[in-house]
Amino acid sequence: MRRPALFLLALLSLGPALPARAEDEPAPAWNRFEQVFLTEAQALDLALPGAQSRVPHAVALDDALVARLQRALGRKLAPSFAYVEGRAAGRTTGYAVILEEKGKHEPITFVAALGPDLGVREVAVMIYRERRGEAVRRKRFLNQFVGKTAADPLALNRDLTSLTGATVSCWSIAAGVKRAVVTMAALRQEGRL
Amino acid sequence: MRRFHTWAGLLAGPLVLVAAGTALALNHRDLLARPVSERVASPYARYLTAVAAPAVPDAPGLRLVGTSDGVFRTTDGGRTFEEVTLPVPAEQVVALASAPDAPATVYLALRESGVWRSDDGGWVWEEVALPFTPAFGGETIQALAPGPKGALALLTPAGLRERAPAGGWTLAPRPAAPAAEGDKALVRLAYDLHDGRFWGRWGVWLTDAAAALLLALVATGYGMALRAWALRRRAVRRRAG
User: Fold this and answer.
1) Who's near A104: CB < 8 A, 6+ residues apart?
2) Which residues of chain B neighbour A65 with C-beta distances below 8 Å?
3) Separation in Å, CA of B226 to nearest CA in chain A
């Protein structure tokens, strides 16, 4: 009986020694903590396996398309979009879109790999710049994107579930993947892919 | 004394179950999130916090409703709603307001996720650049009021922040705290102690562990009480037989 009581006492006495609460932490500088998990070359290797060549594309989106995409995504967009096409034996093997979305405070860089059918094949975090929320890299979250297309909601609390402690980062990744998938689908619909 | 202990335990058990169970649930709200097929697309299933009526020619009945965990749109006078999609979790909506000189422009303030602006009545949103990072250093957004020509006023714990029509932010710092604010600080302290945030990020996990221990104590306590009750009953039957 004495041992559990001592353990509980030790546990409670740990309290003041634990890290300070988040609100007391100094400025965003504290939170900046860049971790590179994948370089661009590694990300493209991962996203376009088996591709003999990679063709980068930079597409200018006209006003009508931007307006249509903005309405579909519910957010303002830049009038340009870039992706890399993987090719082998004269055929497209897939597409890689390197994206940057603001997380809680800092941008997150990640890659979305799409198949020739524009379904998501893989999502991987390349650079994470905050101390908290890195859990968003977990396969448990990222695997939820596999197989999703522009027809899916691709939204948290709908067809995706976020992770405790990385909620905002999960939303950011979901918003970025949705942007990639919806834009690529619109480009194909317009015959520009 | 022992009997009192047993009865006190039995009566307090349900309360401890509720307190510990809800503490666990609140600390891990995402585990409670259900897929959209089950998620009710109605603001009335949540705490309502704000409403705006942007004037858009092709949607005369457009209203936006802000809640504790989402923004909803109705175009038919509130009979049906759809959830507004934002690139951030639309949690803790503190304000939704139309600009006085541009009725289709609507501002949305989220307590910890910044201010968002839409120029088409709430279909396309963009984040408003702020001179501070919401939720850092405890500076959250508590109220918002748009003015003419892009002017904006924000109330935060730091004071009143105002954006002039020409751009550029000013801060009128909050005056020295009156005595009554001490009570609020105590309430906040009580909340922080309750969910473990007082001790930092690990404190939440410690609270989880303590809550799980309490749940286990209650469960084993009920088990022991039931066993004792069954033994007593058996002994009484034996004596009677």
Assistant:
1) A31, A130, A132, A133, A168, A169, B135
2) none
3) 22
Q: How far is CA B59 from CA B76, B104, B108, in A?
A: 9, 10, 19
The alpha-carbon gap from B75 to the nearest alpha carbon of chain A, in Å, equals: 16
The residue written with tokens 């990640």 in the block is A110
Judged by CB atoms closer than 8 Å, whether chains meet at B201 and A132 is answered as yes
Using the Cα atoms of residue A165, residue A169, residue A175 and residue A179 in order, give the sign of their dihedral. Answer: negative
The single-letter DSSP state of residue A118 is S
**B237 CA: distance to closest CA in chain A (Å):** 34
What is the ipTM score, two decimals?
0.77
Distances in Å between the alpha carbon of B233 and those of B2, B9, B61, B229, B230?
18, 20, 68, 6, 5
Question: Which residue in chain B has the smallest CA separation from A15?
Answer: B199
Burial class (CB in 10 A: 0-12, 13-18, 19+), A26: exposed
Q: Which residues of A touch B31 (CB under 8 A)?
A: 164
Judge contact between B196 and B209, C-beta under 8 A.
no
**Segments in chain A forming alpha helices (H):** 2-13, 28-31, 40-47, 63-73, 139-142, 167-189
pTM for the structure as a whole: 0.73
For the stretch A67-116, pLDDT in tens is 999 999 999 999 999 999 999 999 999 999 999 999 988 899 999 999 99
Residue A82: phi and psi, rounded to 5, are -125, 140
For residue B240, the distance in angstroms to the closest alpha carbon of chain A comes to 37
Angle formed at CA A61 by CA A56 and CA A62, multiple of 5 degrees: 150
pLDDT (tens digit per residue) in B151-184: 999 999 999 999 999 889 999 998 876 666 666 7
Task: Assess contact for B114 and B89: CB atoms under 8 A.
Answer: no
CB-CB: which of A132, A164, A172 is closest to B87? A172
Query: Which of B84, B126, B202 faces A18 most closely, judged by CB atoms?
Result: B202
User: Which residues in chain A have their CB less than 8 angstroms from residue B82's CB?
Assistant: none
Answer whether residue A7 shows pLDDT above 80. Answer: no
CA B65 – CA B78 distance, rounded (Å): 10
Which residues of chain A from 85 to 114 reach within 8 Å of chain B, CB to CB? 101-102, 104-105
Instruction: Examine the pLDDT at A6 and tell me if it is beyond 90.
Output: no
